Amino acid sequence: MFTALLIEQLLNGLQLGVMLFLMAAGLTLIFGVMGLINLAHGSLYMIGAFACATVAAATGSFWIGLIASLAAAAGVGAIIEVAVIRRLYDRDHLDQVLATFALILILSEGARWLFGSFPLYLDIPPLLQGAVPLPGGGQYQLYRLAIIGVGIAVAVGLYLLIARTRLGMRIRAGESDREMIGALGVDIGTLYTVVFALGAALAGLAGALVGALQSVQVGMGEPVLILAFVVIVIGGIGSIKGALVGAVIVGVVDTMGRFLLPSLLALTMPASQATTIGAALASMLIYVVMALILAFRPSGLFAAQS
Amino acid sequence: MNRETTVNLLLALLLLGAPILAANLGEPFYVTLATRVVVLALAAVGLNLALGLGGLLSFGHAAFFGLGGYVAGILATHAFNGEPLFADIPATTSMPLIWVTAVVVAGLVALPIGAISLRTSGVYFIMITLAFAQLIYYFAISWPAYGGEDGLSMSMRNAFPGVNTAKPLPYFLICYAALMVTLLLFRIVEGSRFGSALQAARQNGTRLAAVGIAPFSIRLVAFAVSAMITGFAGALYADLNRFVGPSMLSWHMSGELIVLIILGGKGRLFGPVAGAMIFVFFEYVLGGITERWQFFLGLILLGIVLFARGGLLGLLSGKPRHV
């Protein structure tokens, strides 16, 4: 029984990690190519979730909702990039933090204006309802397995996009020398908009996928955003491989900490106390892990060459 | 007297005069509003030391603000219940003692956080300070002894010798005096050898190291002092609201502190004061007109960042003395 529980929790950690990867990949791509720190990435996640929930409720199809979430997040991302973000590339980090913080206020309050303060709900599509048996007994939700599958597919897709396509070549060139690729005749403005919209679409996809597991509400993006920051700091800002490794570390450490710490502490103290202290420690665990990693590798595990 | 000094004096007088006038007109609400301005300004003065002088963009100063608040709340609760704090250390409701404790606690927590965070720079520094603040935030939420998610209410304001702190105006004057003393300290630090070294560390750390001063230790001290001032403000804020909760530790709070500095003018003595005045004014006026005031605050903030760099003091008093 314990083995089954352990596998289930590991899978949960993996699912959280994969979801964080979708967020972190966009963040780290945007930072790597444009040198921009984007706090509003969590708002794009929220937009994806709202778009999916609204369209799925209107059409009755989760899949149309999913496409809508990609389109909405990418669309809003492109609009934001052209209207605001574009002016921030040659500013310092302080201006970027403030302007994107302002965007959070605008987008969160705007979403509350449009959709109200009550959470929306999104059902798991019929195709993915149900559970699969786990080795050692127990069952696992098919939908969560599907999220893990989507995450792996996106990771492979991103790898192929960046390593094998012309767009990917330009993205890599933009990371190493943006003046030079401008001088070589690549329209850098369009490239930046495309990269930003791509990152936004990934965030929107993550929001839509998670929307079916949790309620869809204003502010849902913020905890995820901060976890995604932890992920890219651990992985090395600008590195997609780092984002993948960091995301799995954060997802698994966080989930396993919440699962194991209370029972570990229960060996040395009364159960009720162990639950409280274990929960408190578990919620801090990933930050401790991050601090430890940064104490030894100040620029993350897979630091991109500066 | 240059133009910025004149503007600063006028702001200081306005901030003192308006609540006294309001108290005499029987409008205690405005006195409380002014106290809010003063305490937020004080918190931002702390951050301004790290951010304005040292160029350290800490996105986690809410941690120190909240710690100061929790020190005040926890000491007051223990004293109210007549429980000792630890074995035989008694709790207290005396403000000066609480302030000292808050400042010391904030400084002690800031040292390890600073020591790890300052190994990094740029975006890493922003995110790691944010992450440490989140660590403390989640700890406060999941630790049930002091209210957890609900926070901690204090039944009455703590005591200051010879002053009735329950009345709005005396409490305002305490906070105002604290702000003015801290601003004086800020000015002294800015002009001292340490202040010069700190600003040199912001402008060019390598060059500072070349003349024989290690930027790391200068930055670390600045970070800790900055946290101590913000922690002090947190203790005052808890007493102002007679409540302390995890919202004081949240990353929105860290963001707001940065916003205050930018609204007013980064690195300027009275920047945080001007910024807090505008922020609370917006919050009050926009908040009175529409529930969606944060939407418009966001638009205004975006406009300032994109088009009016230098903040209010930049508009009022021209170019800064240091570039």
Describe the fold and architecture.
The complex is a heterodimer of chains A (306) and B (323). With 306 residues, chain A is mainly alpha-helical. Chain A has one domain. Chain A is built from 11 helices and 2 strands; from the N terminus they run ααααββααααααα. In chain A, a hairpin with a 5-residue loop joins β1 and β2. The radius of gyration of chain A is 20 Å and the shape is globular. Chain B is mainly α and 323 residues long. In chain B, 54% of the residues are buried.
Short description:
In chain A, 75% of the residues lie in helices and 2% in strands. With 306 residues, chain A is mostly helical.
Record the SSE blueprint.
The complex is a heterodimer of chains A (306) and B (323).
Chain A: H1 2-34, H2 41-59, H3 62-83, H4 93-115, E1 131-133, E2 139-141, H5 142-164, H6 166-176, H7 178-183, H8 188-211, H9 221-235, H10 240-265, H11 271-296
Antiparallel strand pairs in A: 1-2
Helix pairs in contact in A: 1-5, 1-8, 1-9, 1-10, 2-3, 2-4, 2-8, 2-9, 3-8, 5-6, 9-10, 10-11
Chain B: H1 3-24, H2 28-53, H3 62-81, H4 95-117, H5 123-142, E1 152-153, H6 168-191, H7 193-203, H8 205-210, H9 215-241, E2 243-244, H10 251-264, H11 271-289, H12 293-307, H13 311-317
Helix pairs in contact in B: 1-2, 1-6, 2-6, 2-9, 2-10, 2-11, 3-4, 3-9, 4-9, 6-7, 7-9, 10-11, 10-13, 11-12
Radius of gyration of chain A: 20 Å
- Coarse morphology of chain A: globular
* Major protein interface: A-B, 42 and 40 residues
Low-confidence stretches of chain B: none
- Beta-strand residue fraction of chain B: under 5%
Number of strands of chain B: 2
Under CATH, the topology of chain B can be stated as ABC transporter involved in vitamin B12 uptake, BtuC
- Summed up, the domain count of chain A is 1
Please give the order of strands in the largest beta sheet of chain A: 1-2
CATH class of chain B: Mainly Alpha
The portion of residues assigned to helices of chain A is: over 70%
The strand line-up of the biggest sheet of chain B is 1-2
**How far is it from the N-terminal to the C-terminal residue of chain A, by CA?**
49 Å
The helix/strand order of chain A is HHHHEEHHHHHHH
State the domain count of chain B.
1
Largest sheet of chain A: 2 strands, antiparallel
Strand content of chain A: under 5%
- The counted number of beta strands of chain A is 2
